[in-house]
Structures are given as structure tokens and as C-alpha cells.
Design brief:
single chain; 27% strand; 23 strands; 4-stranded mixed β-sheet
Amino acid sequence: MTQTVFRAGAAATDITPSPGTLVNGDFFPHRATHIHDRLHARALVLEQGDMRLAIVVVDICVIPRGMIDEIKTIIAGQTGIPAPHMLVSCTHTHAAGSVGDIFLTPPDEAYAALLPGLVAQAVILAMGELRPAVMAYGSVQAPQHAVCRRYFMKEGYVPENPVSGGTDAVKTNPFGAEHMIDRRVAEADTGLSFLAVKGAGGEWISVLANYSLHYAGDWENGTISPDYFGVFSRHLTQLLEAGSGFQAIMSNGTSGDVNIWDFLQPQRYPTAHYAKSDIIGKDLAEAVYSALPQLEWNAAPVLAAAHDEVLLKVRKPLPAEVSAARELMAATDYTALSFNMDALRRIYAREQVLLADMPDELLCPVQALRAGDVTIGALPGEFFAGTGLRLKEAMPHYFTIGLANANLGYVPPLAEMERGGYETWRCRNSLLEAAAEEKITARLLQLLQSLQ
């Protein structure tokens, strides 16, 4: 007989790289020197009849599209779950092994060869944990940590643009220029949404949470750490006194313009290593824990999925810009750079040359999932808080998982593209046409509405 009872299972695999592995997420490469905490791929599988959904969140900075497709192929071959029913995303910790080429850091080939199998194994193990279950949706506000990192500056401050050679209308992360800040550009999305899953007997299976905040980054270079995402998982597990079959999963939302570095109140966090991530992870876990008694549980949620690809143009440099970039590259020793504006000009010159050789168009995967009255959107990059807030206004019981199914870098709304700032500087990590955000979110909203 066809199984019609709602079932769920969760599992994790250890993906911690060895010391010496390349670490990316910075303009310059680093190598792992010590492990503060283990990294994981955490998976939740939901099943209702013949429909299965798999959501995987990986403690890593970014995973390129080709590797995610490889992961999904392995999972499909082992479980029969179709690729459009899988969501694979990154926490975006900047203290993990490199499997994506970012600025001057290439993938670590040995680690990249191991990761697909390890991530896929998390889903395969979760399939073995499937049991009758109930689920619920919750959402609380957690405004104390997320702030917009883009600022309008006072007259007299010149936000330089290393790509155009001109100036921007805004400054991202104005270190050392706090006294020149006028105001923040936008509001953060401070909502903490979550999907809670328990077994029919009351045992905890998983909590999949979502918060729109960049990593805390409170470690020294060379550290391997899941950042506040790992603290959240450990602390919620302890609060619930959950067994080994439980997985607390924190996913990254629309945090492209949001972090914890509040330049208007720079002293509000302790400065010790790991102190910020510990505070944030525990605060978020306790907020979820406090909301659990008010949840309404659903024993028969409808599951559904929709997927599409949006064709987008790539922002390419002009031939004269490529020629000038090549000249600057030829005069640069990239092993001897120190972080300053001159170094940024040289790093972004290299990016223009690499961009020139890329295709003129790219396919952007867009995905919508439904579990009962909850809908989840998957966006393949770093989208701004305003994007997530607009989608939440349009869809009840909704959240967006960012850095999902591919990495197309920063995807700012058109108004923010026009203002400039770090997130808009043309490179392989900010390469889509100015109208990309509008086109992507319009298609995602159509998919979400089609699942209702």
C-alpha cells in the first residue's frame, strides 16, 4: 500500500576539513590551522505519500552550481528523490573549506572531491530515519543582532569604487569612518522563522530555522568554525534535551546587506574570539525554544515543490576596461598584496579579465517548496533583506533560504545597484544584470503562488 502517513527524518554528516585545507570567503587565501568546532551537513527529509522533499544546510561559505548538481545526482540515485524536490544551501560561514573560486582563493581540490558524497550522505541517512511525524510553523522577532551594513555618509566622505574608479552613493562596512556616518540605507529583516518537526510519539526530529544575518566572523584567520549556526544547533538541542536523532538546523536568509557589525554602536558586543557567535546562536535558540509551546501541530501537511530556471545577462566589462585591467594585472604581484584600496583595484582588475571570458548569460535556479501552510523560497545567492521582506509580505507563513542550489553572488535590488557599494562592484561574485533581482523574485513569487 502507498504510504500516506506524514513522515519525517533528519540526520547530519561531519564535513570538517583537515588542517592545511584552503579556506575562502576573504579577498586573500588562508589555510586551516585549527578546528574550533566541527562542521556539518544537516538534512531534513519530509514525506507524504509519494512526495518527498529534502532540505540540506551545509556549514560552508559557498557551493558552485556544478557541485550542487553533483550532490543532487548522488541523492537521486540513492533515494529516488527528484532533483527539483531537493534544496541544498550554505550557511555562509567564512571559516570552512574552499570549494568555490572566490577572489584570490581557488577551491581546495582534495576537499572539493570529498564534499559531494558527504553532503549526499546526510540525506541518505535522514531517509533511514523516516517515521510518522507532525510539523508546525513558528515565527518570532529577533531584532537585537541584524543591522544593515550599508550607510549613507556625511558630506566630505568619498566612497571609492575600485572597479569604475568613481565614487558610490553608499559605503559598506565603513571601518575607521564611523564618525562620518549619516544613516543606514535600509532596514534589516529581523524575523526568525522556523519549521518544527516531532515524531508522532512526541520525540523531536528537527527544527529548521531561518535568520537573515551574515556570519559573525569572531575568529582568527585559519580557524574552522560553523560560526553562530553551529552554536544555535548545539544550544537548541540542549534546551530540548533532544536525542541523537534530532537536528537543529539554522539556514541563512536574505542577508546580503546585513551583518552584526553595528558601526553606530561599535561597542555593543564583546571582542573576544567566539563571543559574538556564542551570544547570537544562544539568543536565537532560546527565542525558538520559547515559541514552541504556542505552536499548532499538523499531522497531515500537503507537500509540494516547483522549480524553474531564469535566464539572466552577465554584466561584462567593455573591451577597453579589459585591456586596462590586463595591464594592471601584469604590473601586480598578487602574493604580496596588503588590504587597501590599491590592492582592491588590482584584485578587481583580475575579476574583470575573468568576467570577460564568462558566458554572456547564466541560468538562475529558482525553487519553491510547500509543507502544509508553510512555503519556502530558495534563491541562489546573497539577496538583500528588502527582497526577503517583500516576499514575506506577499506570502503568509513564508521564509527565504539564500545561497541555495547555486551561487550567483550578490543580487541587489535595482535601487541598490544604482547606489553602488561593495555588494554591487562588478566581479564574479556580483555579476548579474541590474534587473536580475526583479526578474528572479517575480518568477519565484509565481512558483510560490502556484503551490497554494
